[in-house]
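Q: Given only this backbone (178 positions), what sequence would you predict?
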């Protein structure tokens, strides 16, 4: 999908890598890195988006304020960036370097980006007790290594209750006569 956006796959890969570095610095959720309608890699928030500037080093941060007053407050908070477009309730900033943790919090707040979830042992245990590990047991924990503790029993590869009921239905259905 390099169509009208990138000249080749290498440019698309480089753009995504630059966005991933910023996503890590922002400590934002990985699901917020996606392609927009035109195919460009963006970090999408609920009140704006971040795109690369095109030089491989800087970013364009587009922010939509709730009102003129809110937009003014956002401009005051993001003083570490340079304003490139200043509208009534929205605008663009240019970010020249990866943000510090304090600056990242301000950007996440302005764009309403979700923060990356960190799993501690306590939160991992609560997910397991809530039944989240049931989805991963059938897949031999391939999708979530480390989520299920080593001592947790896993179901056997034999017939499950669901498979047994499906097989029973197949046995009771009448055969078609040609």
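A: Predicted residues:
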């Amino acid at each position: 999908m390099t169509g009208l956006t990138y000249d080749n796959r290498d440019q698309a890969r480089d753009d995504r890598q630059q966005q991933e570095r910023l996503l890590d610095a922002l400590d934002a959720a990985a699901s917020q890195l996606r392609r927009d309608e035109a195919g460009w890699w963006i970090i999408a928030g609920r009140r704006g988006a971040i795109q690369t500037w095109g030089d491989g080093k800087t970013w364009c941060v587009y922010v939509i304020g709730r009102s003129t007053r809110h937009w003014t407050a956002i401009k005051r908070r993001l003083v570490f960036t340079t304003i490139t477009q200043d509208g009534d309730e929205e605008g663009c900033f240019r970010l020249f370097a990866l943000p510090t943790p304090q600056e990242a919090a301000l950007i996440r707040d302005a764009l309403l980006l979700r923060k990356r979830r960190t799993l501690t042992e306590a939160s991992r245990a609560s997910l397991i007790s809530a039944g989240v590990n049931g989805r991963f047991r059938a897949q031999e924990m391939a999708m979530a290594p480390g989520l299920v503790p080593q001592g947790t029993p896993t179901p056997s590869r034999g017939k499950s209750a669901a498979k047994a009921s499906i097989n029973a239905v197949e046995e009771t259905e009448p055969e078609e006569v040609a």
